[in-house]
Write a structure and sequence with these properties.
Blueprint lengths: L11 E4 L13 H4 L11 E4 L5 E4 L6 E3 L2 H10 L5 E5 L9 H8 L3 E3 L5 H5 L5 E4 L16 H6 L3 E4 L1 H5 L11 H14 L2 H22 L9 E6 L8 E3 L4 H8 L3 E2 L8 E3 L2 H7 L3 E5 L6 H17 L7 H5 L2 E2 L4 H4 L4 H13 L10
Parallel strand pairs: 4-5, 4-7, 5-6, 7-8, 9-11, 9-13, 13-14
Antiparallel strand pairs: 1-2, 2-3, 10-12
C-alpha cells in the first residue's frame, strides 16, 4: 500500500500555512509538511478516521495512551515524560532496556480498556487511541463521546494503521501506515526530527530486505500463517489484509495465507488452516512479563500444533517450520515491525541472507 492510500479514511496531519513545508520522504503533501522544519511546526491540524479535524496550537503536556503501541511510540520519540497513564500496559520485559524501565514507570489506568470515568478525569490534554471506536474490544460501548472528550479538555488522536485501516479501501502491504503514525505523533508532540530518524531506520531495514527478496516471484514466496495462540485454540483467529501483520509478512517476502479476507482480524476454522497448508507458522504469543514464562508459552503453542489431529500433518508442523516471534511486535504498530520483517525474511529466505546464517 502506498502512503497516500490510507489517508482517505485515516488520520491526516497538516501544518498551517505559517509553517514551512517539506519533510520526510514517502508521504503525501500534507504529511510531509508536518516536519515543522520552518520553526515550531505549530499549529498542527489532525483529522480522525472520518475526517473530523483537531488542531494543536502547541505540544500536549499530559498524554494518556490506550495501549502499549502508542506508549512505545512516545517513548521512542522522547515524549515519554509527558505520558501520565496508559491502558493495556506492556508486560515486564516486553520493551528493551531503559525503554522498558520507562514504560514500567507509567501509571496504569486500566489493565485493559481504561474506564471512561478514569480517562475523562485523568487531567490529560491528549488521548491517543489505537482502537478506533473499540467496538470489538469488549466494554467499548462505554467509550467517551466526542462531546465528553471536549468537555474534559481532552483532544483525541487515533493511530491510523490500527484504528482506521479496517475502514480503508486498500489493504496494508507495507509499513507506510505505521511510519505515518510515527511522523504524526512527532508533529503533534514537537519531536518531528526524532520521528524522521525512527522512520529512516525502519525504511533502511525494510529496503535491505526488499533488495534481497524483492525479485522472488509471488508464487514462489512461502506461505505463512500467524497462529495467535492467546486468542484460543478452539477457533483460530486469522490476521487479514488490513492488519499491520499482513504488511509485516508481505514485506518479509512471504504470503499471508489469509490475505484474502477483508478487515483486520477474522475467526476461521482449523479446516480453513488445513486447506491453506502453510509453509511456515508464526507462534505469536504475548509477552508474559517473564522470559521463562514466555518461552514456555511458545513451547505450548508448538506442542498444540504437533499434537492436535487437524494440524499435526501440516507441512510447517512436519518440518518444524516455526517462528517464535511475539504477537505485539507483529500485530501492533511500532518501530519493531521493521525488526520483525527482518526476522521473518531471514528465516523463510535463508538463501537470500547467506552472511546472516554462517
Amino acid at each position: 500500500m502506498r502512503p497516500g492510500k490510507l489517508c482517505g479514511l485515516a488520520v491526516v496531519v497538516a501544518v498551517a500555512a505559517t509553517a514551512c513545508g517539506g519533510g520526510g520522504g514517502g508521504g503525501t503533501g500534507e504529511d510531509s509538511s508536518a516536519s515543522g522544519r520552518g520553526g515550531s511546526g505549530f499549529p498542527v491540524r489532525v483529522t480522525d478516521c472520518k475526517g473530523a479535524p483537531t488542531t494543536f496550537s502547541s505540544p500536549p503536556r499530559k498524554i494518556v495512551t490506550s495501549n502499549a503501541a502508542a506508549l512505545e511510540m512516545l517513548l521512542r520519540l522522547g515524549a515519554g515524560d509527558r505520558v501520565i497513564g496508559t491502558g493495556f500496559p506492556p508486560g515486564k520485559g516486553a520493551l528493551p532496556g531503559e525503554l522498558g524501565a520507562q514504560a514500567q514507570r507509567v501509571p496504569v489506568l486500566g489493565k485493559h480498556i481504561i474506564p471512561k470515568e478514569k480517562l475523562l478525569g485523568s487531567g490529560a490534554d491528549l488521548y491517543i487511541d489505537t482502537f478506533a471506536a473499540m467496538g470489538a474490544m469488549g466494554g467499548a460501548g462505554d467509550a467517551p463521546t466526542p462531546e465528553e472528550f471536549r468537555a474534559a479538555g481532552i483532544k483525541h488522536l487515533y493511530l491510523a494503521s490500527t484504528a482506521c485501516a479496517p475502514m480503508a479501501a486498500a489493504p496494508q502491504r507495507d509499513l507506510s501506515g505505521v511510519e505515518r503514525d510515527i511522523e504524526r505523533l512527532g508533529a503533534v508532540t514537537g519531536t518531528a526530527p526524532r520521528a524522521k530518524e525512527l522512520v529512516a531506520g525502519m525504511r533502511a531495514k525494510t529496503a535491505a530486505v526488499h533488495k534481497a527478496v524483492g525479485a522472488v516471484p509471488e508464487k514462489q514466496r512461502p506461505t505463512y500463517f500467524l497462529f495467535d495462540y492467546d486468542a484460543g485454540t478452539k477457533q483460530p483467529m486469522a490476521v487479514c489484509r488490513k492488519q499491520v501483520a499482513n504488511a509485516v509478512i508481505t514485506q518479509a517476502g512471504a504470503r499471508n495465507v489469509f490475505d484474502g479476507c477483508d478487515g483486520d482480524f477474522k475467526p476461521v476454522s482449523w479446516e480453513d488452516v488445513v486447506a491453506k497448508d502453510p509453509d511456515w507458522i508464526q507462534l505469536a504469543v504475548r509477552n508474559r512479563g517473564d522470559a521463562a514464562a514466555t518461552d514456555q508459552a511458545f513451547d505450548q503453542a508448538a506442542a498444540f500444533l504437533r499434537d492436535f489431529p487437524a494440524t499435526k500433518g501440516l507441512t510447517a508442523v512436519r518440518k518444524g517450520h516455526f517462528l517464535r516471534i511475539g504477537s505485539e511486535r507483529t500485530t501492533i504498530a511500532g518501530v519493531r515491525n521493521a525488526d520483525t520483517v527482518e526476522e521473518i525474511a531471514h528465516t523463510v529466505h535463508p538463501d537470500r541472507f547467506p552472511a546472516a546464517h554462517r
